[in-house]
């Protein structure tokens, strides 16, 4: 390894694409970011243009390489928004429809049909995931159904289906490689968790031909080599693909059972490594955390649909020109929410409740309620939902979870992190790096090409963290949780 070599990592998110250069000490030496539009063609439908996804990646890579002229790139790693999926023509590389994002609910009626056919338990047993339109399988089937002769073309292998990582790999390698990693594959609801390969029963249930799917490979390993792309030369190994939440877990160096992290974004994901797949009895998913050439690491995960998104909604509701930042400032002006609770079940509840019929509500309003109280309730709702998933993880894993690692945009809010520690009754250790998913992808790529030698070496790299210790009394915590559970019960469907 030459001392001037760097790892290039791409973090392709829902609203922006980031590219970073990471050195051997684990430091980010340059970064760039490009915004990404989202469209809402119908209520509950959320999609993006595949061309825009790729253009944002190409531009972000070119921008970051311009920051370090002459940089020698040892490898490329990719982390990506999960569950979002698209189709393209194998011969022309042209998209065959939109990228249907993880937030999209257009396949909810199909999922309901599967539930009515009594297939929900089979799907969960094989894939580790609850039956929900969040996951990719039903979206692939929908996309294939929108194309003339789509099923026949997919079965013949003329169409390629893939999550965002597979699309980016296809473009980075000039259309020569159709592959995905085990972490992204585990979020499609088509992967058999125990075999770590596509499951024929799941393919039949979701009406997806195997021939259109990518090859499943380890998250850390050389997938292929780049073609020339602007400032990025040809011949650079693409050495990791991984879902963004999984990458953040890896970037925390949370390698062992007993670790748990929460990524606070538009929605939030809690993930905790486990030795073997766990059958959740408390509304969690079992997933592949990451894989290398020697083993597959599994994890329990809980996906919360609206966390940071609910703060943005409150900003719009209250007509706050400063958006989420102004909500945070208002919330910080009061010591508590004054008995007000927001349950952001705008499109139902995710983990651990999985209640599609639940609806959002604000409770506890009085004539004395202020906009600051409502703003504080929006911020607090994030911590309450994380507490619900954290409790489910404690119960399912049977492991003591001594602390919570945190990352993501909303984790920068000190008030939220302190309230989170108070509600959990354990420390919250916040990564102050804004690039944790990208760093996780960089670490996995570096391990694949020998840039770093071991997990122990990665654990010794400097980390940027701050720590929040619980300060709340048990009685106050129980009182607040009782109020939250009451509001939660009111929001749930009666079916």
Q: Counting H and I runs of at least 4 residues, what is the number of helices?
A: 16
Question: Which structural class do the helices and strands define?
Answer: alpha+beta
CATH superfamily of the largest domain: ATPase, nucleotide binding domain
Strand order of the largest sheet: 17-18-16-15-21-22-23
CATH fold-level assignment of the largest domain: Nucleotidyltransferase, domain 5
Question: Which regions are unreliable across 5 or more consecutive residues at pLDDT < 50?
Answer: none
Mean of pLDDT: 93
Q: Strand content of the residues, in percent?
A: 15-25%
User: Which CATH class of the largest domain is shown?
Assistant: Alpha Beta
The figure for the number of domains is 2
What separation lies between the terminal Cα atoms?
61 Å
Helix content: 25-40%
Strand count, sense and barrel status of the largest sheet are: 7 strands, mixed
- The radius of gyration computed from the alpha-carbon positions, rounded to a whole number of angstroms, is 22 Å
Please state the second-level CATH architecture of the largest domain.
Answer: 2-Layer Sandwich
Gross morphology: globular
Number of strands: 23
